[in-house]
Structures are given as structure tokens and as C-alpha cells.
Amino acid sequence: MIKVNKKIEYGVLALLYLNSKEDKAASVREMASNCGVPEALLSKVMQTIKNVGYVSAVYGNHGGYKLTKTLEEINLLGITLALDGPIQVADCLKPGNETCPAKQSCTIVDPMNVLNQKIIELFQTTSLQQLSAQKELSVKEVTLS
Amino acid sequence: MIKVNKKIEYGVLALLYLNSKEDKAASVREMASNCGVPEALLSKVMQTIKNVGYVSAVYGNHGGYKLTKTLEEINLLGITLALDGPIQVADCLKPGNETCPAKQSCTIVDPMNVLNQKIIELFQTTSLQQLSAQKELSVKEVTLS
DNA sequence: CACAATAAGACTAAATTGGTCTAGCTAGAC
DNA sequence: GTCTAGCTAGACCAATTTAGTCTTATTGTG
After folding, report:
1. Does residue A143 lie within any of the structural domains?
2. CB-based contact (8 Å) between B135 and chain A?
């Protein structure tokens, strides 16, 4: 299944929650209980997000995390890269992969790169601002045909 | 990691190989060895692809599979739906999921639907024809609205 | 009938993901 | 200064998903 993982989901939720606190810090405990996600895991997620500069950490009593960027400045690509590494929709795109089983007939590596690039652009153009849009504004029927 | 799975990769390879045979049938063994993929697994993949009508099976000696559609008529969405089920980029999109941990503050379900829809559209507009394009031709057109 | 091929499902193995545990470090409150 | 809430870090484990195998049937041609 093509899907984003829990860390990304949790990170997005936490960042949106942080945004609602304006420039007050929120502890991982507070975020986790408000967002309903596992505290220990969110702790890891926040550390990683801190390392890419979207939030700063406040140590000690009454500490926590604070947003250092606006929702417009944070996009899904940045979050994904931080929490999940580079986007590679197919294994044969991995750097240094010389074991691709289909060398003779392989016309797929570059096309997969095209798909990869499309997904990267999609993620890049999806800001947290967009993800925080109210439901009335963002609803669109998902119809498979 | 956001990625398509092996079955989809193998299915795409096999269909492109089949296309190169024009309307002759190719056995799973032939396809597997030419594409360098596991035969038993490809067998499953081809059965599934047969069930959605992209290929027909020829039983018995000198049998195999034949393409029944053109590369333009087969897109990545169809292959993905067949081999991997509906596209759901986040667990909270699964039908009947009432255990979403973030009900209070959740502003993400519908935005994830938007992302989901964008990915579906991307897959739908990516035909096998595009994936079979020669490398020189396929690099440019990374048009994303 | 013998053989080559698909059909189908149970089963196993490997990899990834999700989540926990433990121990240490930091800084503010008292 | 010490207590405590909180971040840091890494090892570890469990659950799920994915990849791949094995076995047994069925089908159709020569």
C-alpha cells in the first residue's frame, strides 16, 4: 500500500497543535494527550522535527517545543524527508542499487523517476497550511472509477 | 517510505515485456526469466492482472498470457488497484475506522483525502505507454499542476 | 496419456513499521 | 543545592506488512 507512515501523521498533528498554541511551548506529554498519539513515539518524532529546524526545544520545567516557522513555510516534503528519508517509489531508484533484476529490458527506471518526481512535487506543494484548512473548504469526493 | 510494492513493479515489467511480444503468448516462466523476477510470485501477479482483464490466459502446452489492451489503455491506477487494493495514504482514511486517535483536534482527515485524491489522479494519468517511453523522451514532461 | 502451462491457497521468511524501555542530560522552581 | 518536569538518545521488542515458496489441482495440446 502506498501510504505515509504514522510518524508523519503524528508529526503533522503535533505541528498543527503547536501552531494553535501560538508562541507558547507545549510539552510532548501535552501534545500527545491532546492529539491522542503515543507519547514515547511522538517524543522521537519531535526530536527529529527539531533537528530540521521547524521547532525549537525548551529544556527543563515547563519546557517543551515551540514552532519556529509558519504553517506556510512547512510542507509535506520537508516533514517526510525528515521523518522518513528520501522519497523513492521503487527500490531500483535507491542509490547504488546494482542488483536490479531487469537490466536487459528495463525501460522503467527513468519512468519511475518521473513518477517519483511528480510525488516529490506534490508533497512540496502541500503546505501544512493547506493541511490545516477547515473541512468545509477542503472536502472533495474521492471517487474511484 | 512511500513506495509502490514489488508486485506492481513486477506487473509493470511483465506487461511491458508482453507488449514487446505483440499478440503472441508468453509463459510466466519466459516472462520471469526475461524480466529477472521470481517466477512463482509473478505467477500470482499475472493471475490478478488477468482477473481485471488486462491480459488473457492461454492454458496448456505453449500457453501463457497475452495482452488484451494497449499500453495507452492501462494506467498505474488500474494496476495498483488490482495488485494492492484502494489507495489510502493514511490509516484514518480506511472505511469504518472509528478508532482515529485524534478526534478532538483532527483537521487532517479531509486534507489527507485531498492528498489521496491527488495521488490517485497522478496514478490515473500515468499510462503504461508513458512508463514505456524511452529514457530520452520521458525525462522532460514532469508537468504538475 | 504425458506434458506444459495456468489456478489457487496455504504457508514461511524477511523487512518494515510502530511502539516501548531505560538511562542520561538540562534548566527552572523552591 | 536539590527536586522535578521535561528533552535526548539509543537499544530493544512486537506487530504488521510484504515478499516469496510450496503444494496440489486443473486445463488443454500433441
Report:
1. no
2. yes
Protein residue ranges contacting nucleic strand C, Cβ under 7 Å: A 5-7, 37-41, 44, 59-62; B 1, 27-29, 40, 43-44, 46-47, 50-51, 57-65
**A144 within some domain:** no
Q: In this structure, what DSSP letter does residue A94 have?
A: S
- Pairs of residues, one from chain A and one from chain B, whose beta carbons lie less than 8 Å apart: 164
Place of cell 503533522: A12
Q: Is the pTM of this model over 0.85?
A: no
In a domain, B91, yes or no: yes
- Torsion sign (Cα): A135, A138, A141, A145: negative
Domain range for A125 is 6-138
| Average pLDDT along chain A | 81
Quick one: DSSP state of residue A34? Answer: H
CATH of the domain at A84: 1.10.10.10
Judged by average pLDDT, the poorest of A41-50, A81-90, A98-107 is A98-107
> Does the residue B144 lie in any domain?
no
Domain count, chain B: 1
* Residue B28 burial (10 A CB sphere; 0-12, 13-18, 19+): buried
The answer to whether B105 contacts A76, with C-beta atoms less than 8 Å apart, is no
- Residue A133 cell numbers, joined: 484548512
DSSP B76: H
Beta bridge pairs of residue B135 = none
CB neighbourhood size of B99 (10 A): 10
Strand blocks (E) in A36-104: 55-58, 64-67
Residue matched to cell numbers 518526481: A117
Burial category of A83 from C-beta neighbours within 10 Å (exposed 0-12, middle 13-18, buried 19 and up): buried
Q: Hey, are the CB atoms on B35 and A92 less than 8 Å from each other?
A: no
Helix (H, G, I), strand (E, B) or coil at A98: coil
